[in-house]
Amino acid sequence: MAGQLFSQMCFFSDEKASRFHPLTLTRPLDDLRVGIYTIREKWEETLNLKESCRLLPEYMEGVFEKGPYQDNEPCLWVNSRYLPNEGLVTAISELKVNEKLVHKKEVIAAYIEDKTSAQLFHKNDFQSDALEKKEFSDALSLKYIWDLIELNPDQIKADIALTELNSISKTGLGVEAVVHYKENIFIGDNVHIEPGCIFIAKNGPIVIEDGAEIEAGSILRGPIAIGKGATVKMGARIYGGTTVGPVCKVGGEVSGSIFHSYSNKAHDGFCGNSIFGQWVNLGANTITSNLKNDYKSVKVVDWKTKKSIETGRQFLGTIMADHSKTAINTMLNTGTICGVSSNVFIDYLSPKLIKSFTWLGPDNEQLYRFEKAVEVMKSMMKRRDISMSDAYLKMMNNIFELREKNI
């Protein structure tokens, strides 16, 4: 799609980035997953770049890399809230040096000469006031965190072109299963599919990436993306619009939801129209309410302002950040927002906002002691042969301190 080749690309975030908290308390916005890939991966694949750069909050350095940057090369700057599509990529490819694409004063992308770009990158601060403007209105953007759910089905379909996978109509499935619309089913290498599964790809593709496992009796209805090394547990019912990220384990009933990576919902219980970060664990029979009894649109509590805001969505479940966990039989309210490293073990419907590092039990709500929380984090990560780095610990301590400042 691109009319010119870019030597490097750097992601920046604008004033709307805080709308993606609490998921972006532990990751840059370009690391959010929607469809098959993260935002960063989509752009790299689309523009044929092996790597990219990003501006990064100081407390995330060492956990995430700012990326290799060439001071003597011009740079394409991309707003992390925007997703690549044909129209936008064509417009970007036509940018001249020191021009920017804007829509209603919002900068979408900019192509900036080497000296200025290097200054912006090393100062960790994107500025574009001096650039020539080109108006562009046909861009696909994320305005709020729940847009990830809204766009996920179409993004799974769009990302097929980036996978280089062949449909099983050409390769075969290699196992006894009930298959509908095999031309829309794409399987990676070393995928293990047990007998008795049902794949229905009439309404969208089913993508199962390298090393994933689909256990016996599972039913998958596209559009669905199952990430590398992920496991769909025996007898699972996975509905369209769902992304199961790398090394996740998902079972029970799941609809229209996104799991980023290393998260588990291994048991029965309904999960609908929800988003989970990394290292989340949902206890058996945890249920996410995703529809109000009066069928009105769901309101959520804004993470930054703590004010109730209207989403305009009739279906919205839970948004839960990294390392948070629920006990068995937990009931999560419609439009619940849960921060980082909270432990929810209640016998009533959850509050709409659960702050980071909250120990929420049936009798009271307490601060989750940092040392205890880190101990649990390390234990879960060790189960996947991952050690917590000093930089990761520092990032978590920063989030803990922000919690005390009510941020």
From TrEMBL:
Record bears the keyword Methyltransferase: no
Domain of life where this protein originates: Bacteria
Q: Which UniProt keywords apply?
A: Acyltransferase, Transferase
| Alphabetized GO MF terms | transferase activity
Protein's UniProt name: Sugar nucleotidyl transferase
The source organism is: Gracilimonas halophila
